[in-house]
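#data-curation
PF: Archiving a pair of folding outputs for the training set. Convention for this channel: one message per protein, sequence first, structure tokens after, nothing in between. First:
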Amino acid sequence: MDELMKMWEYQKVDLKITAMENKLKGSDTRKKLMVARNYLKDAQQNIKNMEAESSALRVSYDTSSHKMETINERIDDVAAELSSSAQEMTMQDVDRLKKESMDLRDQLNRQERELLNIIKSIEKIELTMKKLIANVPRAKNDFEVLRKMYESESAQVAQESEPLRKELEAMEPELDAELLEHYKSIKKRCANPLSPVVGGQCTGCNMELPSAAQKKLAAGSLVECDNCGRILFIKD
């Protein structure tokens, strides 16, 4: 049997295994498993981000609180100064202190609003984080159930494909070693490395072959498709 025809028979068996593996990869169980895994991964990252954000807000809260204390102290100082020394001051000094007192109270109001916003933000983050943390145990349980289901399905596919793998192993000593190595190299990027030529076209990518390539094929030379890189042959 021609070496390429032997490879063709080898590929038929190989593609059966590939089809079984692809079916497993596209199974509902695996899709659900990936969703569960991504949910847990995202949840852990979100919790970490929220903890960092909450921590940063608490620092802002402390900073704002300290500013309020400083402002309140200055308001008290201004009030005391006005109360004890108003008669000794010029009108300009009195007006200046009154204006400062008003400015300080405006600053105090702004700081109070800022504190309230910080508190609301912290409460919102912590509520969201609390709900997320509460959902994690159930999500982990769902993930474990799906993981065991997928492992069971994987074991079943491995068992069913084992006779085919043994068939491939039995065929390999009869194949050209260099051609087999080349086949496996192409297999890394496409499922069917070997492609029949029909009507002057590569059936792998439907690209029409140049006349020079068709002549080489007819002469029995090893030819690869210029477009997809598959090994070409003329099927009997």
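PF: Second:
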Amino acid sequence: MRGARGIAMTASEVFVANYDSILRYDLEWRLIGNISHPHCADIHDIAFRDETLWVASTLNDLIFQFDCNGDVKEIIDLWKNRGIAAIFGVPKNIRERVNGTGDPRAPDRALTDRFHLNSFEFASDGDLILSLGQVRVNGHFESALVALGANGDVRVVHRNSNAPVPSHNIVLLPDGTLLHAETANARVIRVDTNCENGVSTVLETNGGYTRGLCMLKSGQAAVGVQNEVWVFDPSSGHVAQRIRISDDARESVHSIVVMNG
């Protein structure tokens, strides 16, 4: 186990991702189940939508959809999408699928984790927005947000040409724009997917590791900045509160969710 990762909630359960499985708890934090698959590994963001648990399997660049019994309903495989491979020039002859349930240090990530698919969001027009946190091609590192249509068509909605560390989470705002934790540049950006130059910086995080992002019931947003959670206005970027979760600066937030109740 390498620490808790993505987290999702329903009216009666809490799902918490580990490296290669999702633990199911009731609202009293009693363990009631476990969901896993041999190719589901290095899990990042998860979400529960339409009676389906969606899971980003980052090691293999897969999106899993599990039903409420933990059975696989569908798998979205980015390696089979010719549009994404063509856009980012990912070589086809050096990829392999790995079983993620063993030692996480064992797979050669240069052969597996090609896009670092780590987050997703459901756009109002039906597209699935994906965070390709760190695209690795011939020593060049960048990140991108892409929109995946129901027919498999792909379009880039944001591309960051310099990503020495992966970027992360995506959140849909009520007006249809996106907030994105662009970790590589230590900032939160707003992205208008329908505008060619629709990217603006909302919040600079002063070099802190920027990961974990969610909207609050108040209309504010929360983002993880290293070992703190910052509460801020998603329109102005004004920081209303900084909450330290650990005195160890080596700790960093992975996921933030609003609890029911």
